[in-house]
Amino acid sequence: AVLAFEPHPREYFAPQEAPARLMRLRDKAEMLETAGVSMLRVLRFGAALSAWDGVTFIERILDFALGAKQVVIGAGFRYGHDRGGDVTLLRAEGVRRGFGVDELPPQDLGGERVSSTRVRTALAAGRLDEARALLGRDYRISGRVIEGTRLGRRLGFPTANIRLHRRASPVAGIFATRVSGAGPERLPAVASVGTRPTVGGVEMILEVHLFDFDGELYGRRLAVDFIARLRDEVHYPDLATMTAQMHRDASQARQLLGTRG
Question: In terms of Cα–Cα distance, which of 211, 153, 151 is closest to 182?
Answer without folding.
Answer: 211
